[in-house]
């Protein structure tokens, strides 16, 4: 039977690795993001293994999200797994120095974007009373850290929404899980620090961070549990990390 997974933010980092890991499990992949050329590259790589469909849209644009999901050919509409991964941090400043633009970006992408995609995909799952939504939260959605303010708030919202979705969807045959990574070396810090590669590299200095593939492996494990098992929440930290602020650095 055909199994379809839609992964948002598949152009980079955790989303890209997840698309690859789910393809290895035999899922047909719908890969989304804003960078079309990256999606094309991923498609070239993946279609050796499974059928792939790419959708370019910005999760902040609700009309674009609606149109993209509505444009799916019938054969691709029976989405079984939705990985709500698209997200990022913008800036790392005390609240009194924060930028409205950065705050809006984080809330619009990490919270509203996740909701827009979920709003369009859910009816497709409900039609078959089957599905699994995996939201990518963060350790930053469990504990706040200095200067993390609005990014942490956006991930606390993902945590609340994951719990709330699980309650609301329990009678609909839809599982909801939340995977909460710690320090993963991806494009995340480069985006947070607006392209400052040196500052971004400093985040992972003296510590062996997680790789995107480590999180993808966990997501693939979460969605491959039998029907009677739901890994509702998983926190994945780097081996040398104890909390959002405590790590053993060499
Ligand atoms: P990357 O920056 O490598 O990837 C982010 C992905 O999100 C890209 O594919 C990007 O695609 C997509 N994205 C960002 N903004 C938008 C948008 N407006 N519309 C559509 N897609 C968008 O970071 P990660 O892989 O690390 O991040 C993935 C998720 O993991 C995020 O939710 C992040 O908060 C979370 N996370 C990351 C951690 C880390 O340490 N790296 C730790 C904990 C959680 P494109 O730019 O092409 O649109
Ligand atoms: C990303 C992890 O600790 O940089 O969500 O906020 S952290």
TrEMBL record:
Keyword entries, A-Z: Oxidoreductase
Gene Ontology terms, MF aspect: oxidoreductase activity, acting on the CH-OH group of donors, NAD or NADP as acceptor
Keyword Ligase: no
PROSITE patterns noted in UniProt: ADH_SHORT
InterPro entries in the cross-refs: NAD(P)-bd_dom_sf, Sc_DH/Rdtase_CS, SDR_fam
Listed Pfam families: adh_short
Record family assignment: Belongs to the short-chain dehydrogenases/reductases (SDR) family.
Name of the protein in its database record: SDR family NAD(P)-dependent oxidoreductase
């Amino acid at each position: 039977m055909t199994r379809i997974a839609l992964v948002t933010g598949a152009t980079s980092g955790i989303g890209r690795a997840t698309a690859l890991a789910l393809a290895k499990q035999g899922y047909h992949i719908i890969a989304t993001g804003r960078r079309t050329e990256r999606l094309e590259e991923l498609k070239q790589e993946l279609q050796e293994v499974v059928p792939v469909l790419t959708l370019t849209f910005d999760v902040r644009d609700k009309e674009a999200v609606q149109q993209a999901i509505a444009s799916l050919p019938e054969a691709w509409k029976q989405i079984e797994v939705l990985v709500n991964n698209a997200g990022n941090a913008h800036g790392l400043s005390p609240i009194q120095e924060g930028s409205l633009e950065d705050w809006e970006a984080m809330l619009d992408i990490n919270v509203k974007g996740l909701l827009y995609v979920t709003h369009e995909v859910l009816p497709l799952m409900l039609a078959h009373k089957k599905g699994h939504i995996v939201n990518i939260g963060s350790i930053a959605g469990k504990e706040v850290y200095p200067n993390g303010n609005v990014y942490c708030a956006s991930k606390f919202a993902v945590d609340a929404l994951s719990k709330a979705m699980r309650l609301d969807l329990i009678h609909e045959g839809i599982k909801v899980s939340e995977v909460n990574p710690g320090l993963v070396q991806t494009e995340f810090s480069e985006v947070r620090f607006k392209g400052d590669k040196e500052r971004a590299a400093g985040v992972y200095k003296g510590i062996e961070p997680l790789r995107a593939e480590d999180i993808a492996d966990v997501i693939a494990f979460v969605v491959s549990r039998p029907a009677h098992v739901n890994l509702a929440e998983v926190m994945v930290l780097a081996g040398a990390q104890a909390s959002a602020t405590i790590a053993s650095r060499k």
